[in-house]
TrEMBL record:
It comes from Candidatus Daviesbacteria bacterium RIFCSPHIGHO2_01_FULL_41_23. The chain crosses the membrane at residues 9-30, 94-114, 121-140, 185-204, 216-235, 304-325, 332-351, 357-374, 386-403. Signal peptide: none annotated. The lineage of its organism: Bacteria, Candidatus Daviesiibacteriota. This is Glycosyltransferase RgtA/B/C/D-like domain-containing protein. Keywords: Membrane, Transmembrane, Transmembrane helix. It comes from the Bacteria.
């Protein structure tokens, strides 16, 4: 083989992977042709985006509108990371650029961790290629969700765990563990396990260190972690009056199913017929679904039902992690990776809803396990003078993956630039803005629009020339309706609210956007009730007929 060929191949191969990753991520977030504009998933994205945008309006780190605020129900770190993008523009879709940056950081950290596991350039190229072309790694940045931040934090934690300890890394490790919790509460088990794993590494991992040095290192880790944790708890109480310990107690109580035994009383008797949202009764079914997903089967993931990794990655990578426990050079690495999977899957399996986004970090874990499998196969075949068999294996898997995934790659790129899904909610607000292009002469007489859209979502795109009222008495933020829609109305009787505005001489409209959603049949029922009570006159057709605006009149 020509001198330097491997080095040149490796350089150009990695450059190819990075370029391909950028191509798969690239899109215009402001085109209005993507689900990105709808700020999906609700209501989490509102809790992340609204505080980051509103902090520039002087409302503090809260969800705010019209001078009224409510605390967020998510930890603050992801919203904080979003703030720099909103210095450039207050358009809510600016989050995408932050997510692109976080994705590139994640890819870089994955590459570093991969190099710690194997030094074989062909394996590094292939596994890194699998990472950058993974559907969810490339698609998830479209969502303003904290997993985009959690992934680089997790991979950064792996890098710290797998490299030699020094003072700076101990401080970083102390900060990183709490950062996982500050990014997403559901990562609490991962945060705790990270500290335990790093403590094991400090105390037992590096035999050349003296006992006193190990004790000092553990002290640095403990103090750094405790300091950041205290600051986190203080911030939670300061901005949200949020007692993390009482919430933890509440969660533990939820793990035991409760059933009503009479008026005002409950029993702790387990009930398989009515499990709570968090319950050990969910453990068996949920864990089986997660395991099937980890092995390469399709699973629910943020509205999709598909594989989180190729079948050959799951079927070979997951067992390879357990096999690595008996190999000294992989033992601690595999123990850490297995722990990260087990604690997360076990915790999230108590949750009634199974969703792959809750175990998003297992995608790189499976790929690292697959790298261990390939490295062990390579060692065995090379030792037995079967190097060409190893090269044939890599080539076969690579070609199989290309053949089965090329269509997906082209579809993803096409959808990024030509639209993946009509953002109905965004288009509905755009239609409102077009119908109400000017502010009314009397600001107190703004026209009223009845809609299912969340007021905080509407505010992010609205021109401010109209106000909104809810179409249903339940939905997101209805438990805080006075803060969300205004304290002047009683939202328990919406028909009476609509009547009061009509009697006061307001122009009242209703939008049919979203009423045909099969998940929200109550909206269609409410809309039919309005049609029976009022005279509905169609005044605008928007969203290619999917968001029609009607004006209410007395029959």
């Amino acid at each position: 083989m020509f001198p330097g060929f491997k080095k040149r191949f490796f350089f150009w191969g990695i450059l190819f992977n990075i370029t391909l990753f950028l191509i798969l991520l690239a899109q215009n977030p402001f085109s209005g042709k993507s689900i990105l504009s709808d700020l999906y998933l609700y209501p989490d994205t509102i809790h992340y985006i609204n505080p980051a945008v509103n902090i520039f309006e002087g409302f503090g780190f809260k969800i705010s509108r019209e001078g009224r605020s409510i605390p967020t129900e998510v930890p603050p770190l992801y919203s904080t990371v979003l703030i720099p993008a909103y210095f450039i523009s207050h358009d809510p879709r600016m989050f995408y650029f932050t997510n692109i940056f976080l994705s590139l950081v994640s890819a870089f950290l994955f590459f570093l961790v991969l190099k710690l596991i194997t030094d074989n350039k062909l394996i590094i190229f292939f596994v890194f290629f699998l990472y950058v072309t993974n559907f969810f790694i490339g698609w998830y940045p479209k969502l303003a969700m904290a997993e985009n931040l959690a992934l680089p934090l997790f991979l950064g934690g792996l890098y710290l765990l797998f490299t030699k300890v020094d003072c700076a890394k101990l401080v970083l490790a102390g900060m990183l563990g709490v950062s996982l919790l500050a990014a997403k509460y559901a990562l609490a088990p991962l945060s705790i396990s990270f500290y335990l794993l790093f403590a094991i590494k400090v105390i037992f991992g590096e035999g050349s260190q003296r006992g006193k040095t190990r004790l000092v290192n553990f002290f640095i880790l403990f103090v750094a972690g405790l300091t950041v944790f205290v600051l986190f708890i203080y911030g939670e109480n300061l901005y949200k009056n949020y007692n993390l310990f009482s919430k933890s107690e509440y969660f533990l109580k939820l793990l035991v199913p409760v059933v009503a035994t009479g008026a005002g009383t409950v029993s702790s008797t387990p009930s398989s017929q009515s499990p709570t949202i968090f319950s050990f009764s969910n453990l068996q079914d949920s864990s089986a679904q997660y395991l099937a997903g980890l092995m390469g089967g399709p699973m629910e993931f943020a509205g999709f039902y598909r594989q989180i990794a190729p079948v050959f990655v799951g079927m070979l990578g997951l067992p390879a992690l357990f096999y690595g426990l008996i190999i000294k050079r992989y033992r601690f690495v595999c123990f850490c990776l297995i722990t990260s999977v087990v604690v997360s899957v076990a915790f999230m399996s108590t949750f009634k809803v199974v969703d792959g986004r809750y175990v998003y970090h297992t995608i790189p874990v499976l790929l690292l396990g697959f790298a261990i499998f390939l490295d062990e196969v390579r060692r065995f075949l090379v030792q037995n003078n079967l190097k060409f068999a190893y090269l044939g294996l890599i080539a076969s898997l690579f070609l199989y993956y290309l053949i089965t995934s090329t269509g997906r790659f082209s579809t993803l790129v096409f959808e990024n630039w030509n639209g993946d899904k009509t953002p109905l909610n965004y288009n509905t607000v755009v239609a409102f803005n077009s119908f109400f292009p000017k502010s009314p002469g009397d600001p107190a007489k703004k026209p009223v629009v009845i809609t299912d859209l969340m007021p905080y979502f509407v505010d992010l795109y609205s021109n401010g020339h109209y106000r909104i009222l809810p179409l249903a008495t339940f939905g997101f933020f209805m438990n805080q309706a006075a803060a969300a829609w205004g304290p002047q109305d009683d939202y328990h009787n919406l028909l009476a609210v609509y009547d009061s505005y009509l009697k006061k001489g307001f122009d009242v409209y209703v939008s049919d956007s979203g009423i045909y959603d099969w998940n929200k049949t109550y909206l269609l029922h409410n809309f039919k009730g309005l049609r029976e009570k009022y005279n509905l006159v169609r005044v605008s057709i928007g969203c290619s007929g999917e968001c029609i605006l009607y004006k209410l009149g007395v029959k």
